[in-house]
């Protein structure tokens, strides 16, 4: 079985094509193709409230390319979803309708809560009964989930994201609301909590911090040291010395601010970086849709 996941974010648009391998009770998602294009729809939306004609045409070209790849791989099922930028754009639905009519690709504009739930399905696979806060930072929004005893107990989406901050569209009210929520629901005196970080920026921060690779875990202090190093580098240094992609080099510091502030509010001393994201949640959602009886089957990515 082959699946395709389309993730239309505020900073980049991703396509992942996956083959599902089934052996006994083990399901492996084997990546066949992964394309990430830095379209940055959030630049338009958070500044002007709509996607520009120029970027609409670029988006349409990209969807055409993705459709060709989906057809070439002869996939069995796909799911495409758009997040913060598209749902806040005044012409987002119009663009999605155009893609459906002209290309036959059905895209869904999903809420922050639905986005978090998609990723939640994958995250839960690797958790024990301890106390966790999951932080998923995108270009336009941040989704937070709190887990206890292998169950999600609280969840909320906030209008804070790397591109939104870069554009100066975050407010002190946004930050205060997030801090208050985390302090209320995540922090419990005397109880240890561990953060889980998803999103392209935390994966890159993890790589740059030289942590213990086997556990994919780093301390808050290590994360803050890595952020300080990045802050003291010019954009050119980040591009040339660290060889970051242009669409990563400018947003990685704003994104790190969110991870750090949430961890401080929750009193989390370390963060696990499992290298999964919305695209993996989409694949799991697709598999469950076609195999509803497989809810308790372990999924290895």
UniProtKB/TrEMBL annotation:
Residues 35-289 form the Ppx/GppA phosphatase N-terminal domain. Coiled coil: none annotated. SUPFAM superfamilies: Actin-like ATPase domain (SSF53067). One of its GO terms (molecular function) is pyrophosphatase activity. Pfam families: Ppx-GppA. It comes from the Bacteria. This is Exopolyphosphatase / guanosine-5'-triphosphate,3'-diphosphate pyrophosphatase. The lineage of its organism: Bacteria, Pseudomonadati, Bacteroidota, Cytophagia, Cytophagales.
């Amino acid at each position: 079985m082959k699946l395709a996941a389309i993730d239309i974010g505020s900073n980049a648009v991703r396509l992942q094509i996956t083959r599902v391998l089934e052996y006994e009770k083990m399901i492996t998602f084997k990546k066949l193709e992964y394309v990430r294009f830095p379209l940055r729809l959030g630049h338009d939306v958070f500044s002007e409230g709509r996607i520009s004609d120029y970027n609409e045409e670029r988006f349409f070209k990209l969807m055409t390319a993705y459709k060709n790849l989906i057809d070439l791989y002869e996939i069995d099922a796909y799911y495409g979803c758009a997040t913060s930028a598209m749902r806040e754009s005044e012409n987002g639905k119009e663009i999605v309708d155009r893609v459906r009519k002209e290309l036959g690709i059905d895209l869904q504009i999903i809420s922050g809560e639905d986005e978090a739930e998609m990723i939640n399905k994958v995250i839960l696979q690797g958790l024990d009964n301890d106390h966790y806060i999951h932080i998923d930072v995108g270009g336009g929004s941040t989704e937070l989930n709190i887990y206890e005893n292998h169950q999600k107990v609280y969840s909320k989406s906030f209008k804070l994201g790397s591109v939104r901050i870069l554009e100066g569209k975050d407010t002190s009210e946004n930050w205060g609301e997030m801090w208050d929520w985390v302090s209320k629901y995540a922090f419990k005196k005397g109880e240890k909590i561990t953060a889980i970080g998803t999103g392209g920026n935390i994966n890159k921060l993890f790589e740059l911090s030289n942590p213990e690779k086997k556990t994919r875990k780093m301390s808050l202090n290590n994360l803050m040291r890595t952020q300080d190093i990045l802050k003291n580098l010019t954009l050119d240094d980040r591009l040339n010395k660290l060889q970051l992609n242009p669409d990563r080099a400018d947003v990685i510091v704003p994104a790190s601010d969110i991870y750090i502030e949430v961890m401080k509010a929750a009193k989390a001393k370390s963060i696990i970086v499992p290298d999964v994201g919305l695209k993996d949640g989409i694949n799991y959602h697709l598999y469950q849709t076609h195999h509803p009886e497989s809810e308790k089957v372990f999924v290895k990515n």
